[in-house]
Design brief:
alpha+beta, four-stranded antiparallel sheet, two-stranded antiparallel sheet, elongated, Nucleotide-bd_a/b_plait_sf, RRM domain-containing protein
Length: 337
């Protein structure tokens, strides 16, 4: 409703005012004022208590014609003394057993994905052992989730720093450096004259070029992911760590009848970040294993072997055969036999 009013829907203002007038009769003034100011803790507690006391549907479906009449003799249902910061939970000494049970049930319901289904059945049967096991599983599951999130953020920051873009490296308001902002102070002839070791400079330039060319073709092999995983799901997980050029999922499976795939990272730093998080990234509940693809390593070794074979000088026997063949060709041309 608030978004609609902000966007210019004035027809909802009367309904919102009617709800506030209705809640004035059943709430403390301080609580209502804090809720109108946007206090998140008060708003959360207010909604919880309105639902527990059965007032939520009455507030939502309030009659605009009767909202101005203050005929209700109801006492306030929420007091500001019950607020307990920073945990956003009422003080346990001021709660009844029924309220404590409802609060615990809502907490378990919100963390249901971290608890085993059999333990949920024990909680529904009001077993104390089930409640104890549920709280333990929620505790350790939350720690495991936060640890995995920290590792992903750490890998992403390492990828950005290796690319040369550390956090906060560029000053605020400073324009990015483009082609028009570059100032050429010296010509290439002046640079070559000032250079005292041209051979070393050429070697450095060649090594940089070969390194960039090698980095652009590196590919990673990954496996042990979920059987029904798709490229879109895998890309959503990997993009939080580094930039990906392409993801390939072949139809065929490996010798263990499992699916595998290939990742083509954008730069070498992103590939190293993926390698560091091997067996730590989970896709569909399974932790994937990442390693360098052997296909490209084999091609590189094969190319080196062919290059070495081409450099082998001809043997003495080859030279003799060549000379004999040239002699016969000359004799045939001159009419000798």
């Amino acid at each position: 409703m608030l978004k609609a009013i902000v966007q210019g829907n004035d027809k909802l203002i009367g309904q919102a005012a009617a709800r506030i007038r209705f809640m004035k009769e059943i709430l403390e003034g301080e609580v209502l004022e804090a809720a109108c100011n946007g206090d998140e803790e008060v708003l959360q507690l207010l909604r919880l208590h309105l639902m527990n006391e059965g007032w939520w549907n009455k507030v939502v479906n309030v009659d605009l014609r009767k909202s101005g009449n203050s005929n209700s003799n109801q006492k306030p249902i929420l007091k500001p003394v019950r607020l307990h910061k920073p945990n956003n939970i009422p003080v346990s000494g001021l709660l009844t057993k029924e309220e404590e049970k409802n609060l615990l049930g809502n907490f378990i319901l919100n963390k249901r994905e971290l608890v085993h289904p059999n333990v949920i059945k024990m909680v529904q049967a009001d077993e104390n052992e089930g409640i104890r096991m549920t709280l333990n599983q929620i505790h350790y599951g939350t720690l495991r989730t936060s640890r995995q999130t920290k590792e992903i953020k750490k890998g992403r920051m390492g990828c950005r720093q290796e690319e040369g873009h550390p956090k906060g490296s560029r000053e605020k308001g400073k324009p990015r450096k483009g082609y028009d902002n570059v100032k050429f102070k010296k010509s290439f002839a002046d640079i070559l004259k000032d250079n005292k070791h041209p051979g070393q400079t050429q070697q450095k330039i060649a090594s940089r070029f070969s390194e960039s060319a090698h980095n652009s073709t590196d590919t990673l092999f990954f496996s042990d992911f979920e059987e029904g995983a798709k490229v879109v799901n895998i890309w959503k997980v990997l993009k939080r760590i580094g930039r990906v050029r392409d993801i390939i999922l072949p139809r065929k499976k490996d010798r263990y009848n499992k699916r595998f795939g290939f990742i083509k990272p954008m730069v070498m730093s992103c590939a190293k970040s993926f390698m560091r998080l091997s067996n730590k990234i989970s896709i569909g509940g399974n932790k994937i294993r990442i390693q360098w693809a052997k296909k490209y390593a084999d091609k590189k070794e094969r190319g080196v072997q062919l290059k070495n074979l081409r450099r082998i000088a001809p043997t003495i026997l080859h030279r003799v055969i060549i000379l004999v063949w040239r002699g016969k060709t000359t004799a045939a041309n001159n009419g000798w036999e």
